[in-house]
Design brief:
This protein is 45% helix and 12% strand. The protein has helices spanning 3-10, 57-72, 116-133, 151-164, 167-172, 174-183, 188-191, 231-242, 260-271, 279-283, 285-305, 318-335, 337-347, and strands at 21-25, 32-37, 43-49, 91-93, 96-102, 198-200, 209-211, 217-220, 227-229. Residues 23-245 form the Aminoglycoside phosphotransferase domain. GO terms for molecular function: transferase activity.
């Protein structure tokens, strides 16, 4: 961490920069993120945007501002992009885009939960986000990450990685490759269902939701991926991280559970926003509980086969461990389709 550089960066924004301190935030896989504290007692989030992933930074911020305008008009979020002294949403330094975001005080995020109130609030916040944005023109938002949650595209990437990697690497992931091939066609009907597109967050894991000190949900954060998609992407991603108290790279697969009580609380949270989904969308909610972990697992497996070029890893097999964990959760979600459907039918 180059403190001198970070000081140069924050000095470009309209904030008090006297005695600024920086603390790395390491939970994300993509951007470099720092908590910024100063004498003014205000806190901020400073991020260097990973341009290898986000190639359209201007479009990304256009989408964020468009969604935030609608959300803030309805008292949904206190999140703001701070302007530079040149009145820009970002500062460009040595081909790196930097931005500064308000830090919401007295807020907390969870990696997982065992609390039904937290699960309910997660559902309520996800539902409110979609309810408020349901009338947005999806085509007025730019596609900043093409094919992000497009499983057919991810399958093609996976198949290409099998052709390009060594036999030793493939042997080390043989069970996962077999599992992937066995389930590649399980989700074909979802992509043929002609579901309505909505403005989605597209990365709604639990730790991208903020709560206050009374465990009331506040808002979604990490808005880089806002663009059009299907409600099921946000639904399935949140379910994956709300109903299982295990890390994404959990090595002891027996620890991975699908807590049906947390799931029911989550569904009740969504339904507290009233009806905003059509009949066909509701019909495909159960399979999306397996779709999203399967897709994330397939992406982790593909990255492992490609030599860990996309996700940050702290050891060589971490992507393979992520894949194993995510595939295990996908299997549980497939096994529980009847129970999942019953809860959804009774509460949505």
């Amino acid at each position: 961490m180059d403190i001198k550089l970070l000081n140069v960066i924050v000095s470009q924004f309209n904030i008090d920069v006297s005695n600024v301190m920086f603390k790395p935030i390491t939970q994300g896989y993509i951007n470099d993120t720092f908590l910024v504290e100063s004498n003014s007692e205000s806190k901020y989030i400073l991020q260097r945007i990973n341009c290898n992933v986000f190639k359209n930074v201007i479009g990304l911020h256009k989408n964020m501002n468009k969604a935030l305008k609608k959300l803030k008009a309805n008292d949904y979020t206190e999140l703001n992009l701070l302007k530079t002294r040149a009145n820009q949403d970002y500062y460009l330094h040595d081909a790196n885009f930097w931005r500064l975001i308000t830090f919401i005080p007295k807020s907390v995020a969870y990696n997982f939960t065992s609390n039904t109130k937290t699960a309910f609030e997660a559902g309520r916040i996800i539902g409110r986000f979609h309810q408020l944005l349901k009338d947005e023109d999806v085509n007025s938002y730019e596609i900043t990450l093409p094919n992000l949650n497009n499983l057919p595209y991810r399958i093609a990437e996976f198949q290409q990685s099998l052709d390009n990697t060594s036999s030793d690497i493939k042997a080390s992931a043989n069970l996962e490759i077999v599992f992937a091939k066995r389930h590649l066609n399980d989700f074909e009907s979802f992509y043929n269902a002609n579901l309505p597109e909505r403005i989605c967050h597209n990365d709604t894991k639990l730790n991208n939701l903020l709560f206050n000190q009374n465990n009331i949900g506040l808002c979604l954060i990490d808005l880089d991926t806002i663009m059009k998609g299907y409600f099921h992407y946000d639904f399935g991603d949140t379910v994956r991280t709300v109903v299982s108290e295990s890390n994404e790279d959990e090595k002891e697969l027996s620890k991975i559970k699908f807590n049906i009580h947390l799931f029911e609380a989550f569904i009740n949270g969504i339904s507290s926003n009233g009806s905003f989904l059509n009949k066909m969308e509701i019909e495909y909610l159960p399979i999306s509980c397996a779709l999203m972990p399967f897709m994330h697992g397939l992406r982790a497996l593909t990255d492992y086969l490609n030599g860990n070029v996309y996700y940050k890893v702290s050891y060589p097999e971490q992507n393979l461990d992520r894949c194993k964990s995510l595939f295990q959760f996908a299997k549980l979600a497939l096994d529980k389709q009847a129970d999942i459907k019953t809860i959804i039918d009774n509460n949505l």
